């Protein structure tokens, strides 16, 4: 049995803080490389091509997230199911969940590739992408989506590893693909002068490589997570559970993405310089999101495994520790961002007006990162506790409907981009207040028993 459990981590025993820190640390480093992955296209395009190309790449980010976020949320739900079975030590059911999750990912990859490649012009026009930026945006978008299967499969396969407590292996593969992406960007754009589409092509190749490396590791025989192509299928019960826990997470991600796309549409109305500046800030903010990202994943896996083992008090203690670490780190990074934003934005572009937009946005938002961290951490507790509908509703009502309504009204009263920036801390504060009450007053530790994930 020991060999079958190789490269896994049972979080239901031992030191709580060590489990969470040691699980979160590789994810933290992975997230840094993931942001490097996402930012390198903008960084190289902004320095080797022009500001229109930078605007094209930057403004495509929210639309790309819109189309990938739902499926990534689905796999988060699948990971919760896998982690819960791992905590119960029901490895046969876990195997069915793993193979069903991968099958769903393969089908999703095909659909997204078709939608992204053929639907790019329509979607970018609906976002009011400026005419001068549109051709380059379409080019980048299409090349990116040619390799979208790599993104989808990596998130699915790495989610499986994280569900069984292995957060290091995905880090190794992400580091490799990040370095490969940088080298290919420099080769295609810097050396061969291939244009903005080459940035998307480099990302596609790198993403596919990371997914193949993950698959190769999971295909090693003799482990509880062993992936076999002949076992790929849509098990009826596992599809039901993955949908039950994944659909709300997918909708939650999509709601955030839809809101971001609508916000981006309003930003686009200020022109290509504002698009480039705000796009640059979004890349920088991605790095600030890394402590939030690592602790939300750690919290979700820790809570799910321990509730599967009926270790309720242990799940609560782990959740509290993870939340405290996340909000502390997020606020420290927010303060650093506030003071260093002129230098950081200057790495992407030398356009003074564009940098000014980045500075204005950062100095409106960055000191409120602690609120963003708290909301995401309690959301992770809900997912790990088998209550994914709660964060879905919060995101729908607050981060989408309220945020978009506020911006729409504000822009009609005064067409000032600063009012758009304030939408984020305002809605983060409201969601944090709700989550504060929910976390302390609800019975989230018995979510699995009430929803009957198994047995």
Report on this model:
This protein has about 450 residues and is mostly helical. About 80% of the residues lie in helices and about 0% in strands. The protein is built from 17 helices and no strands. It has helices at about 15-50, 50-90, 90-125, 135-145, 150-165, 170-190, 195-220, 235-270, 270-290, 290-310, 310-345, 350-365, 370-385, 390-415, 415-420, 425-440, 445-450. α3 packs parallel to α8, α5 (about 150-165) runs parallel beside α7 and α10 packs parallel to α13 (about 370-385). The mean pLDDT is about 85.
Key features?
globular, 455 residues, 17 helices, mainly alpha
- Care to count the β-strands? 0
Distance between the termini: 23 Å
Could you say which overall geometry the principal axes of the C-alpha atoms support? globular
Average pLDDT over all residues: 86
The radius of gyration over CA amounts to 21 Å
